[in-house]
C-alpha cells in the first residue's frame, strides 16, 4: 500500500518546474498585443508569478530546470534552486519529462510536485487546496490536476519513482499510469488549471486575474 501523505505545507515535498530557453518558449502564443509583443519577457513574467504562488505556501524546496541563464536568475530571486536542463533526453523520454526528472533528482524529497511554469493567474489558496486533496488519498502513487480543457496536466503530485508523463494527452497518460485525478469534473481551482499556450489561454487567465509581473509585461 502506498500512502500519499502530501501535507499542504509541503514539509517533505519538492516543487519542480521546467522552462524552455525563453527565446524558444511559447511559439503558439501569437498574436500578442502589438505594443507588448515580447514573448520571452512574458514567459519570464509568468514564471515569476507562478513562483510567487508556490513560495507563498512555504515549500521545503523549489527546483527550476532550464537551459536559460535568465530563468536561473528568476529562480534564484525567488529562493528556488536552478538546475540545467539535460543536454539529451534518455531514450523514451521527452525533453520536458527528462527536465522534470532532472529536477526531481536534485532533491531528496519523498514527494515531488511537478507544476506547470506558466500559471500567471495561480493563487496560493488553490495550490494549497489541491495539495490538501492529494493529501487525503491513500493507496495511490500519484494524483494530478488536469488543465482547463481536461486533456493536459497542470500539476502532478507523485511519490519518488513515479515518472512524469507531461505532453499531449498527459491527463490520460497519468491516469493510465495509476495517478488519481483530483476534481475530475473540473469545478475547482480554475487558476491552477489555466496554463498558457495560446492567446485563448491568456484571455482565460486574464478573466481570472493575472499576477503583477504578467500584467506589467502585457502593459496592464
Mean pLDDT: 91
Rg calculated over all Cα atoms:
16 Å
**Count of separate DSSP helical elements:** 8
- In CATH terms, what is the fold-level topology? Spore Coat Polysaccharide Biosynthesis Protein SpsA, Chain A
The CATH fourth-level homologous superfamily: Spore Coat Polysaccharide Biosynthesis Protein SpsA, Chain A
What is the straight-line distance between the termini? 50 Å
Count the E strands.
7
Can you tell me the CATH class? Alpha Beta
Largest sheet descriptor: 7 strands, mixed
Uncertain runs: none
CATH architecture: Alpha-Beta Complex
Sheet with most strands: strand arrangement: 3-2-1-4-6-5-7
In total, how many domains does the architecture comprise?
A: 1
Bulk shape: globular
Order of helix and strand elements from N to C terminus: EHEHEHEHEEHEHHH
Structural class: alpha/beta
Protein name: Phosphoenolpyruvate guanylyltransferase
Family: Belongs to the CofC family.
Function: Guanylyltransferase that catalyzes the activation of phosphoenolpyruvate (PEP) as enolpyruvoyl-2-diphospho-5'-guanosine, via the condensation of PEP with GTP. It is involved in the biosynthesis of coenzyme F420, a hydride carrier cofactor.
GO molecular function, one term: GTP binding
Amino acid at each position: 500500500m502506498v500512502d500519499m501523505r502530501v501535507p499542504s505545507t509541503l514539509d517533505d515535498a519538492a516543487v519542480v518546474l521546467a522552462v524552455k530557453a525563453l527565446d524558444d518558449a511559447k511559439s503558439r502564443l501569437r498574436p500578442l498585443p502589438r505594443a507588448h509583443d515580447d514573448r520571452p519577457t512574458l514567459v519570464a513574467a509568468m514564471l515569476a508569478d507562478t513562483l510567487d504562488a508556490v513560495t507563498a505556501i512555504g515549500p521545503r524546496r523549489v527546483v527550476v530546470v532550464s537551459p536559460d541563464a535568465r530563468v536561473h536568475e528568476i529562480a534564484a530571486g525567488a529562493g528556488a534552486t536552478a538546475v540545467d536542463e539535460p543536454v539529451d533526453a534518455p531514450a523514451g523520454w521527452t525533453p520536458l519529462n527528462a527536465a522534470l526528472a532532472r529536477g526531481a533528482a536534485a532533491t531528496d524529497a519523498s514527494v515531488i510536485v511537478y507544476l506547470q511554469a506558466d500559471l500567471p493567474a495561480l493563487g496560493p489558496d488553490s495550490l494549497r487546496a489541491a495539495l490538501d486533496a492529494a493529501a487525503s488519498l491513500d493507496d495511490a502513487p500519484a494524483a494530478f490536476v488536469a488543465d482547463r480543457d481536461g486533456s493536459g496536466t497542470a500539476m502532478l503530485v507523485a511519490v519518488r519513482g513515479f515518472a512524469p508523463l507531461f505532453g499531449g494527452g498527459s491527463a490520460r497518460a497519468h491516469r493510465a499510469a495509476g495517478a488519481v485525478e483530483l476534481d475530475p469534473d473540473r469545478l475547482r481551482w480554475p487558476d491552477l488549471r489555466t496554463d498558457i499556450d495560446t492567446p485563448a489561454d491568456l484571455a482565460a487567465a486574464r478573466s481570472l486575474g493575472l499576477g503583477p509581473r504578467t500584467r506589467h509585461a502585457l502593459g496592464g
